[in-house]
């Protein structure tokens, strides 16, 4: 039989105590965040990192939409630029700003976005998505899919931000189902943001017409119309099967990482809510800046 001291030593080093402590922190998160009106959800077509320092029509669209978003307790961002094997959630107190691009003006690398993280929210998300296996990550930070757009919604960087990776092993529908598990966060002041581009073929970008208004190739125009129709009519099966749905889809989504964030956002729409499109224009022939606001 264990002595009292031996039992206490065991308890202090026990995985059981760790799990109980973690669960207590999760419950405390939900208890400590007062009940708030249901937060909207956003999908942001983030486009070029240059949007962080330019004042173009898409930046103006972000700023206008920012006026409709109540200040959240925290933000959970699913960005195209954290596309890895497995699901990770940033759990550091002070996430670094990641300049995950090269060849841009020096001014862009000087932009700061010193938002704090939220280890407790990270643990909460980890619990919500079970049985999906997740890892609390201490290395990543905020990539440009997050900070280049969030800076227009919360320019003071005074809202904690965490990111969740996109697991390249999951199917499109599995990402949709994973997104559904996050729904309770909306009632606790968490703004969930997907960041990518629903038409995104960098290999075919026409840089000579980069600033031409709403310019898209025929296949990009077709794909944008078809995808928008699926979104607005909540007909998601073609999106789940985008690889075989149409030739236009195949050109529009040659790789999935910029497309998948929208799956999380569409999964969070409830029956009495409305989908609004904004920044809904094509760019440089093969990109779409289409963004969504659901409330």
Low-confidence blocks of residues: none
**Total individual domains:** 2
Q: CATH architecture of the largest domain, please?
A: 3-Layer(aba) Sandwich
Question: DSSP helix count?
Answer: 12
Could you say what the CATH topology of the largest domain is called? Answer: Protocatechuate 4,5-dioxygenase, Chain B
State the helicity in percent bands: 25-40%
Radius of gyration: 20 Å
Q: What does the average pLDDT come to?
A: 92
Series of H and E elements: HHEHEEEHHEHEEHEHHHHHEEEE
Strand line-up across the major sheet: 6-2-8-1-12-9
Structure, described:
The chain has two domains: 1-32; 38-294, 3-Layer(aba) Sandwich (Protocatechuate 4,5-dioxygenase, Chain B), CATH 3.40.830. It is built from twelve helices and twelve strands. Strand 10 and strand 11 (287-288) form a beta hairpin. Helix 2 crosses helix 5 (119-128) and helix 7 crosses helix 12 (261-267). It has helices at residues 4-13, 15-32, 57-66, 106-109, 119-128, 144-153, 172-180, 218-232, 237-240, 242-245, 247-252, 261-267, and strands at residues 41-45, 74-79, 83-84, 87-90, 134-137, 161-163, 166-167, 190-196, 275-278, 282-283, 287-288, 291-294. The mean pLDDT is 92. It has a six-stranded mixed sheet with strand order 6-2-8-1-12-9, with helices on both faces. A two-stranded parallel sheet has the order 3-7. The chain has a two-stranded parallel ribbon with strand order 4-5. Helix content is 36%, strand content 15%. The chain is an alpha/beta fold and 295 residues long.
């Amino acid at each position: 039989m264990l002595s009292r001291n031996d039992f206490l030593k065991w308890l202090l080093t026990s995985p059981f105590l760790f799990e109980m402590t973690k669960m207590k922190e999760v419950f405390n998160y939900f208890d400590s965040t007062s009940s708030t009106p249901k937060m909207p959800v956003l999908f942001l077509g983030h486009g070029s990192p240059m949007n962080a320092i330019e004042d173009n029509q898409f930046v103006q669209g972000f700023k206008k939409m920012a006026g409709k978003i109540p200040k959240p307790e925290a933000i959970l961002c699913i960005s195209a630029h954290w596309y890895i094997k497995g699901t990770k959630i940033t759990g550091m107190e002070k996430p670094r700003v990641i300049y995950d691009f090269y060849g841009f003006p020096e001014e862009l690398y000087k932009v700061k976005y010193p938002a704090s993280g939220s280890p407790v929210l990270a643990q909460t998300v980890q619990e919500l998505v079970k049985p999906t296996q997740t890892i609390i990550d201490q290395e990543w930070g905020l990539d440009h899919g997050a900070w280049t757009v969030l800076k227009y919604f919360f320019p003071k960087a005074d809202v904690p931000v965490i990111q969740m990776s996109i697991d390249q092993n999951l199917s499109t529908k599995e990402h949709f189902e994973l997104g559904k598990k996050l729904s309770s966060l909306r009632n606790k002041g968490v703004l969930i943001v997907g960041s990518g581009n629903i038409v995104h073929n960098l290999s075919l970008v026409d840089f000579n017409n980069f600033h031409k208004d709403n310019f898209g190739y025929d296949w990009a125009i077709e794909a944008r119309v078809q995808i928008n129709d699926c979104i607005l009519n909540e007909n998601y099966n073609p999106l789940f099967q985008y690889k075989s749905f149409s030739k236009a889809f195949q050109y529009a989504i040659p790789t999935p990482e910029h497309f998948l964030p929208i799956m999380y956002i569409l999964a969070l729409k409830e029956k009495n809510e409305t989908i609004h499109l904004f920044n809904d224009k094509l760019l440089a022939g093969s990109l779409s800046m289409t963004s969504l606001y659901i409330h």
